[in-house]
Protein backbone atom coordinates (compact mmCIF):
# COMPACT_ATOMS: atom_id res chain seq x y z
CA UNK A 1 0.00 0.00 0.00
CA UNK A 2 1.31 3.43 -0.93
CA UNK A 3 1.97 5.99 1.76
CA UNK A 4 0.48 9.47 1.29
CA UNK A 5 2.89 12.31 0.64
CA UNK A 6 1.81 13.73 4.00
CA UNK A 7 -0.31 12.01 6.62
CA UNK A 8 -1.39 12.25 10.24
CA UNK A 9 0.72 14.69 12.32
CA UNK A 10 2.79 15.83 9.34
CA UNK A 11 -0.34 16.58 7.35
CA UNK A 12 -1.92 18.55 10.20
CA UNK A 13 1.27 20.53 10.71
CA UNK A 14 1.34 21.43 7.02
CA UNK A 15 -2.29 22.62 7.16
CA UNK A 16 -1.76 24.67 10.31
CA UNK A 17 1.43 26.32 9.04
CA UNK A 18 0.29 27.13 5.50
CA UNK A 19 -2.37 29.79 5.95
CA UNK A 20 -1.40 33.23 4.65
CA UNK A 21 -3.37 36.31 3.52
CA UNK A 22 -4.61 36.10 -0.06
CA UNK A 23 -3.36 32.56 -0.51
CA UNK A 24 -5.46 29.56 -1.50
CA UNK A 25 -4.14 26.20 -0.34
CA UNK A 26 -5.50 22.89 -1.53
CA UNK A 27 -4.70 19.32 -0.43
CA UNK A 28 -5.76 16.14 -2.24
CA UNK A 29 -7.19 13.64 0.24
CA UNK A 30 -7.66 10.81 -2.25
CA UNK A 31 -10.45 9.87 -4.69
CA UNK A 32 -12.42 13.14 -5.18
CA UNK A 33 -11.67 14.50 -1.73
CA UNK A 34 -9.95 17.87 -1.29
CA UNK A 35 -9.32 20.28 1.57
CA UNK A 36 -9.41 24.00 0.70
CA UNK A 37 -7.91 26.63 2.99
CA UNK A 38 -8.33 30.38 2.64
CA UNK A 39 -8.00 33.09 5.32
CA UNK A 40 -7.94 30.46 8.10
CA UNK A 41 -11.23 29.00 6.84
CA UNK A 42 -11.48 25.40 5.66
CA UNK A 43 -13.81 23.62 3.24
CA UNK A 44 -13.80 19.89 2.53
CA UNK A 45 -14.97 18.67 -0.87
CA UNK A 46 -16.35 15.09 -0.95
CA UNK A 47 -13.95 13.56 1.59
CA UNK A 48 -13.67 9.78 1.98
CA UNK A 49 -11.50 9.14 5.04
CA UNK A 50 -12.48 5.67 6.24
CA UNK A 51 -12.39 2.03 5.19
CA UNK A 52 -16.16 1.62 5.07
CA UNK A 53 -16.17 0.54 1.43
CA UNK A 54 -13.42 -2.01 2.03
CA UNK A 55 -15.63 -3.59 4.68
CA UNK A 56 -18.83 -3.29 2.62
CA UNK A 57 -17.43 -5.01 -0.48
CA UNK A 58 -15.16 -7.60 1.15
CA UNK A 59 -15.59 -10.97 -0.53
CA UNK A 60 -17.44 -9.57 -3.56
CA UNK A 61 -16.45 -9.08 -7.20
CA UNK A 62 -15.84 -5.38 -6.46
CA UNK A 63 -13.30 -5.44 -3.63
CA UNK A 64 -12.53 -1.91 -2.50
CA UNK A 65 -9.04 -2.60 -1.23
CA UNK A 66 -7.01 0.57 -0.75
CA UNK A 67 -3.99 1.28 -2.92
CA UNK A 68 -3.07 4.32 -0.83
CA UNK A 69 -3.35 4.64 2.94
CA UNK A 70 -5.68 7.18 4.53
CA UNK A 71 -4.29 10.70 4.85
CA UNK A 72 -5.93 11.61 8.15
CA UNK A 73 -8.61 10.35 10.51
CA UNK A 74 -11.70 12.58 10.19
CA UNK A 75 -11.98 13.13 13.95
CA UNK A 76 -8.66 14.96 13.86
CA UNK A 77 -10.06 17.62 11.53
CA UNK A 78 -11.66 19.77 14.22
CA UNK A 79 -11.28 23.08 12.36
CA UNK A 80 -13.57 22.56 9.35
CA UNK A 81 -16.22 25.14 8.42
CA UNK A 82 -18.01 23.27 5.65
CA UNK A 83 -18.11 19.96 3.81
CA UNK A 84 -19.79 18.94 0.55
CA UNK A 85 -21.29 15.84 -0.98
CA UNK A 86 -21.92 15.79 -4.72
CA UNK A 87 -24.04 12.62 -4.64
CA UNK A 88 -25.00 9.60 -2.56
CA UNK A 89 -22.25 7.11 -3.43
CA UNK A 90 -20.31 6.26 -0.31
CA UNK A 91 -16.97 7.59 -1.53
CA UNK A 92 -18.74 10.96 -1.78
CA UNK A 93 -21.16 10.64 1.17
CA UNK A 94 -19.47 8.50 3.80
CA UNK A 95 -21.09 8.15 7.19
CA UNK A 96 -17.83 7.01 8.75
CA UNK A 97 -16.18 10.23 7.54
CA UNK A 98 -18.97 12.76 8.01
CA UNK A 99 -20.18 11.43 11.36
CA UNK A 100 -16.85 12.05 13.11
CA UNK A 101 -16.52 15.42 11.36
CA UNK A 102 -19.90 16.49 12.72
CA UNK A 103 -18.92 15.34 16.20
CA UNK A 104 -15.80 17.53 16.34
CA UNK A 105 -17.21 20.48 14.37
CA UNK A 106 -20.59 21.31 15.96
CA UNK A 107 -21.23 24.21 13.56
CA UNK A 108 -20.16 22.31 10.44
CA UNK A 109 -22.16 23.17 7.31
CA UNK A 110 -22.92 19.93 5.45
CA UNK A 111 -23.89 20.83 1.87
CA UNK A 112 -25.81 18.20 -0.09
CA UNK A 113 -27.99 18.23 -3.22
CA UNK A 114 -31.57 18.99 -2.17
CA UNK A 115 -32.75 15.81 -3.91
CA UNK A 116 -30.52 13.80 -1.56
CA UNK A 117 -31.27 15.61 1.71
CA UNK A 118 -33.43 12.92 3.31
CA UNK A 119 -31.17 10.08 2.18
CA UNK A 120 -28.09 11.91 3.48
CA UNK A 121 -29.77 12.67 6.80
CA UNK A 122 -30.63 9.00 7.28
CA UNK A 123 -27.10 7.88 6.45
CA UNK A 124 -25.57 10.46 8.81
CA UNK A 125 -28.20 9.86 11.52
CA UNK A 126 -29.17 13.50 11.78
CA UNK A 127 -32.37 15.42 11.16
CA UNK A 128 -32.76 16.64 7.57
CA UNK A 129 -32.82 20.22 8.87
CA UNK A 130 -29.24 19.73 10.16
CA UNK A 131 -28.02 19.61 6.55
CA UNK A 132 -27.68 22.49 4.08
CA UNK A 133 -29.46 21.57 0.84
CA UNK A 134 -28.62 23.17 -2.47
CA UNK A 135 -30.28 23.10 -5.87
CA UNK A 136 -28.64 23.60 -9.24
CA UNK A 137 -28.43 27.36 -9.72
CA UNK A 138 -28.50 28.14 -6.00
CA UNK A 139 -25.62 29.50 -3.92
CA UNK A 140 -24.52 28.70 -0.37
CA UNK A 141 -21.94 30.74 1.54
CA UNK A 142 -19.67 29.22 4.17
CA UNK A 143 -17.20 31.74 5.58
CA UNK A 144 -15.27 33.17 2.60
CA UNK A 145 -16.43 30.35 0.30
CA UNK A 146 -19.42 30.75 -2.01
CA UNK A 147 -20.61 27.52 -3.60
CA UNK A 148 -23.03 27.07 -6.47
CA UNK A 149 -24.33 23.73 -7.69
CA UNK A 150 -24.15 22.70 -11.35
CA UNK A 151 -25.52 19.53 -12.99
CA UNK A 152 -23.48 16.34 -13.23
CA UNK A 153 -24.28 13.09 -15.02
CA UNK A 154 -22.94 9.94 -13.38
CA UNK A 155 -23.93 8.11 -16.58
CA UNK A 156 -27.12 10.17 -16.99
CA UNK A 157 -28.70 13.32 -15.61
CA UNK A 158 -31.02 12.20 -12.81
CA UNK A 159 -33.62 14.31 -11.04
CA UNK A 160 -36.22 13.66 -8.37
CA UNK A 161 -39.95 14.29 -8.57
CA UNK A 162 -39.30 18.01 -8.00
CA UNK A 163 -36.79 18.27 -10.83
CA UNK A 164 -33.82 18.55 -8.43
CA UNK A 165 -30.57 16.92 -9.53
CA UNK A 166 -29.27 13.88 -7.66
CA UNK A 167 -25.73 14.35 -9.03
CA UNK A 168 -24.07 17.76 -8.98
CA UNK A 169 -20.74 19.49 -9.21
CA UNK A 170 -19.74 22.61 -7.29
CA UNK A 171 -18.31 25.91 -8.46
CA UNK A 172 -16.46 27.45 -5.50
CA UNK A 173 -15.53 31.12 -5.41
CA UNK A 174 -13.17 32.42 -2.77
CA UNK A 175 -10.84 35.40 -2.62
CA UNK A 176 -11.06 36.12 -6.34
CA UNK A 177 -10.41 32.48 -7.28
CA UNK A 178 -12.89 30.17 -9.01
CA UNK A 179 -12.67 26.39 -8.67
CA UNK A 180 -14.79 23.73 -10.32
CA UNK A 181 -15.22 20.35 -8.62
CA UNK A 182 -17.12 18.25 -11.11
CA UNK A 183 -18.11 15.42 -8.80
CA UNK A 184 -18.59 12.17 -10.71
CA UNK A 185 -19.69 13.00 -14.23
CA UNK A 186 -19.50 12.23 -17.91
CA UNK A 187 -19.85 14.81 -20.65
CA UNK A 188 -23.46 15.60 -21.55
CA UNK A 189 -25.40 17.88 -23.86
CA UNK A 190 -25.72 21.38 -22.41
CA UNK A 191 -22.90 20.89 -19.91
CA UNK A 192 -20.92 23.85 -21.17
CA UNK A 193 -23.91 26.19 -20.77
CA UNK A 194 -24.17 25.28 -17.06
CA UNK A 195 -20.52 26.02 -16.27
CA UNK A 196 -18.52 29.24 -15.92
CA UNK A 197 -16.72 30.50 -19.03
CA UNK A 198 -13.41 30.15 -17.21
CA UNK A 199 -12.03 28.77 -13.95
CA UNK A 200 -8.75 29.01 -12.14
CA UNK A 201 -8.66 25.38 -11.01
CA UNK A 202 -10.62 22.40 -12.36
CA UNK A 203 -10.76 19.24 -10.22
CA UNK A 204 -11.72 16.47 -12.65
CA UNK A 205 -11.93 12.65 -12.48
CA UNK A 206 -9.98 10.67 -15.05
CA UNK A 207 -10.89 7.04 -14.30
CA UNK A 208 -13.43 6.72 -17.11
CA UNK A 209 -16.15 4.07 -17.12
CA UNK A 210 -16.40 0.29 -17.29
CA UNK A 211 -19.98 -0.96 -16.83
CA UNK A 212 -18.85 -4.58 -17.14
CA UNK A 213 -16.92 -4.19 -13.88
CA UNK A 214 -19.56 -2.04 -12.21
CA UNK A 215 -17.57 1.18 -12.61
CA UNK A 216 -20.09 3.98 -13.10
CA UNK A 217 -19.47 6.70 -15.65
CA UNK A 218 -16.75 9.29 -15.16
CA UNK A 219 -14.62 11.43 -17.42
CA UNK A 220 -11.80 9.66 -19.19
CA UNK A 221 -8.41 11.32 -19.43
CA UNK A 222 -9.23 12.62 -22.91
CA UNK A 223 -12.63 13.92 -21.81
CA UNK A 224 -11.13 15.64 -18.77
CA UNK A 225 -8.63 17.45 -20.99
CA UNK A 226 -11.38 18.44 -23.42
CA UNK A 227 -13.62 19.77 -20.64
CA UNK A 228 -10.76 21.70 -19.05
CA UNK A 229 -9.98 23.33 -22.40
CA UNK A 230 -13.60 24.37 -22.84
CA UNK A 231 -13.48 25.96 -19.37
CA UNK A 232 -10.26 27.84 -20.18
CA UNK A 233 -8.95 26.32 -16.96
CA UNK A 234 -5.75 27.92 -15.72
CA UNK A 235 -4.88 24.68 -13.94
CA UNK A 236 -6.27 21.13 -13.89
CA UNK A 237 -5.84 18.65 -11.05
CA UNK A 238 -6.87 15.08 -11.97
CA UNK A 239 -8.54 12.93 -9.32
CA UNK A 240 -10.63 9.79 -8.71
CA UNK A 241 -7.74 7.37 -9.16
CA UNK A 242 -5.04 5.73 -7.06
CA UNK A 243 -7.36 4.75 -4.18
CA UNK A 244 -9.12 1.48 -5.04
CA UNK A 245 -7.39 -1.27 -7.01
CA UNK A 246 -10.50 -2.30 -8.97
CA UNK A 247 -11.31 1.27 -10.07
CA UNK A 248 -8.22 3.25 -11.00
CA UNK A 249 -6.10 4.27 -13.95
CA UNK A 250 -2.52 5.39 -14.33
CA UNK A 251 -2.38 9.16 -14.92
CA UNK A 252 0.06 8.74 -17.82
CA UNK A 253 -2.55 9.22 -20.56
CA UNK A 254 -3.89 12.36 -18.89
CA UNK A 255 -0.37 13.77 -18.56
CA UNK A 256 0.47 13.05 -22.21
CA UNK A 257 -2.77 14.57 -23.49
CA UNK A 258 -2.50 17.63 -21.25
CA UNK A 259 1.05 18.25 -22.38
CA UNK A 260 0.07 17.86 -26.03
CA UNK A 261 -2.73 20.39 -25.53
CA UNK A 262 -0.48 22.82 -23.60
CA UNK A 263 -2.92 22.49 -20.73
CA UNK A 264 -1.42 23.46 -17.35
CA UNK A 265 -1.88 20.68 -14.79
CA UNK A 266 -0.61 19.54 -11.44
CA UNK A 267 -0.45 15.89 -10.43
CA UNK A 268 -0.84 15.66 -6.66
CA UNK A 269 -0.21 12.72 -4.38
CA UNK A 270 -2.57 11.96 -1.54
CA UNK A 271 -1.90 14.43 1.26
CA UNK A 272 0.06 16.77 -1.01
CA UNK A 273 -0.55 20.53 -1.01
CA UNK A 274 -0.93 22.96 -3.88
CA UNK A 275 -0.55 26.65 -3.07
CA UNK A 276 -2.27 28.94 -5.54
CA UNK A 277 -0.82 32.48 -5.63
CA UNK A 278 -2.78 35.59 -4.71
CA UNK A 279 -4.36 37.61 -7.49
Looking across the biggest beta sheet, what order are the strands in? 6-5-4-3-2-1-13
Q: Span between N and C termini?
A: 39 Å
Q: What's the name of the CATH homologous superfamily?
A: Ribonuclease Z/Hydroxyacylglutathione hydrolase-like
CATH class: Alpha Beta
- If you compute it from the alpha carbons, what radius of gyration comes out, rounded to the nearest whole angstrom? 17 Å
Question: Describe it for me?
Answer:
It is a single chain. The chain has a single domain (8-276), classed as Ribonuclease Z/Hydroxyacylglutathione hydrolase-like (Metallo-beta-lactamase, Chain A, 4-Layer Sandwich), CATH 3.60.15. It contains seven helices and 13 strands. The protein has helices spanning 8-18, 52-56, 95-104, 117-124, 191-194, 221-230, 252-260; strands spanning 24-30, 33-38, 41-45, 82-84, 109-113, 132-134, 139-142, 145-151, 168-174, 177-181, 201-205, 235-239, 273-276. The strands form two sheets. The protein has a seven-stranded mixed beta sheet, with helices on one face. A six-stranded mixed beta sheet has the order 7-8-9-10-11-12, with helices on one face. Helix 6 runs parallel beside helix 7 (252-260). The termini are far apart.
List the defining traits of the structure above.
279 residues, alpha/beta, Metallo-beta-lactamase, Chain A, seven-stranded mixed beta sheet, 7 helices, 13 strands, 24% strand, globular
SSE map:
Layout: H1 8-18, E1 24-30, E2 33-38, E3 41-45, H2 52-56, E4 82-84, H3 95-104, E5 109-113, H4 117-124, E6 132-134, E7 139-142, E8 145-151, E9 168-174, E10 177-181, H5 191-194, E11 201-205, H6 221-230, E12 235-239, H7 252-260, E13 273-276
Parallel strand pairs: 3-4, 4-5, 5-6, 10-11, 11-12
Antiparallel strand pairs: 1-2, 1-13, 2-3, 7-8, 8-9, 9-10
Helix pairs in contact: 6-7
Amino acid sequence: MKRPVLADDAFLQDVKSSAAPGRLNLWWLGQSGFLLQYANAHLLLDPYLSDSLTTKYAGTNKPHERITARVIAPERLDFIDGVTSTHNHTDHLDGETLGPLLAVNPKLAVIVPRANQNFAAERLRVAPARLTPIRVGEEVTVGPFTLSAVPAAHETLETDENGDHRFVGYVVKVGGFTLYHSGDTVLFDGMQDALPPSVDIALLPINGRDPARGVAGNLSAAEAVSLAQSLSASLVIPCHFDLFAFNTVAPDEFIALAQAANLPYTLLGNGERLTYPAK
